[in-house]
Write the structure tokens for this entry.
Amino acid sequence: MLASSTSIVWADLPKLPVTIPGVPDDVAFLGVVGIGAFLVLLLLFTMLRRGKKVDPEGGLGEDLSTLPPAPKGQRHYQLFIMNQPARLRLVVIAPVGKKTVGKVDSALEQIFRGLGEVSFDDKPRVRIWPAQLSTTGFAPTFFRLTKSPDADGRPSRFVLLAGPARAGSMPVLLALVVEVSELSKLGKMTMTETQWGEVLRVENA
């Protein structure tokens, strides 16, 4: 009974306008239906991918409590911030426009003499952000995405600096986190291109 019902259903199906030599009409029809279903699913998948929003800040957050301690042992250079001894613990650098940053330590040395050498000694965590559309929005974004173990406005051993800089002739955006030897109220400092040399100092250790 079931087989005859099935044969009646197939008999009632419309004939394909184009037949495939050597292939039964029923099989050819199923093939066309399968290809059509595949194309519909492919179209839906493509539309869903196009509609999927990409978070431009995904993966850019930093938790300062997870930073490893500064390495011990002999150092060749000592970093100071506002005359306080400090260790460089985090470097975030981003290009402006389509140019690439290149070697980070070389860029740091061009931005501020001795800073690249300090990075060799202190071995900070280094992050290269994608090119930024807004130079003025870089510092607030960095401050917002960087979580400190200390409450805002309270003395902390971490000082955050961020703003535009210039590596030779190339403009970049730079953010540093330095760890000072004593609790500091410096907190978060928004920098200009010329202020890096006013706030930081590097001396032979």
Notes: The first strand starts at residue 62 and ends at 63.
